[in-house]
Amino acid sequence: MLDLPQLREDQPAHRPFVAAYAKPWPGEIAVYRSAATDGFALLTTFGSRARIGVLAEGFYAGPVSRFNLGNALVIDLFSGTLESVTDITLLGGANALAVESGAGQWEIVQAGTAELIAPGRYRLTRLLRGQRGTEGAMVSMVPTGARVVVLDTTLASLPISEADLGLPWNWRIGPASRPVSDETFVAATFTPEGAGLRPFSVAHVEQPWRTARSPGDLTIRWTRRSRSLAADSWGAGDVPLAEDFEAYALDILDGSIVKRSLTTATTSALYTAAQQTADWGTPFGPGQFLAIRIYQLSALIGRGAGRSVTLTF
Fold this sequence. Notes:
The protein is mainly beta. The chain folds into two domains: 17-197, no CATH class; 209-312, Immunoglobulin-like (Sandwich). The chain has helices at 87-91, 273-280; strands at 17-18, 29-34, 41-46, 52-55, 59-60, 67-68, 73-77, 96-102, 105-118, 121-131, 141-142, 147-150, 156-157, 169-175, 186-190, 209-210, 218-221, 248-254, 257-264, 268-271, 289-298, 302-303, 307-312. The protein has a six-stranded antiparallel barrel with strand order 4-7-10-9-8-12. Strands 18, 19, 21, 22 and 23 form a five-stranded antiparallel sheet that branches. The chain starts with 16 loop residues before the first strand and ends with a strand.
């Protein structure tokens, strides 16, 4: 069960996904859920077997927003195949995989080159990392055995409502031809958080510049990203907002302690000299550093993915 960003226009952004594999394949899979440990009700059924596998080698962190040519993603697929694609096809969304970097945390990776190196084992290179705003799920090393799911039309969208988000449902998933109490059903706990509604982290945080409004005031600027699937247009103009309104929160940090939170409706925030003095005893000057974290806000789920930056003066 995967809580992922929206992958296609025909999928409601708030709905999570379920991917299943079994051998032999039972033909139809049933998904039941309950708020308790009994009284399970059928939610949906689906008949597509996903391409699921595991890491055959550790997978290390790499750069985002450009090709990661130094790492390889080596996976053992339980079924199905993978093949290399051109860059144009890759940039159109092909060969996307979700790598579970932690409990319930998935980094979306795309691979331009797929090399079969043993039966069912692929070495994937020419990678695009942290796709669809998942760069925050990247860790220094994902260990061997971590789960991998190929993101294609075999994934089923769970038909839940936005009111179901944040609720710790109990789930049972198994062959639709058998009762929910059958031993073949897999029991799971899963809380959908609406990852498809989470604003992406901001980009291009600029070094602060001092305003003429008051000596010592700092203006911090950044560039908005959009979770909209239409945001990849290279035409003129800004990317779609995809939120009910534009708003941001900026935390001023002292290690793990939040010294001050600023809110703004634009892609800039003013940190006044008076606020700096109240927080630190004096305004910032040359040779000093300031750690901040910026979030775009969602009316439904609150803070989106954070962008942490250390500013220098």
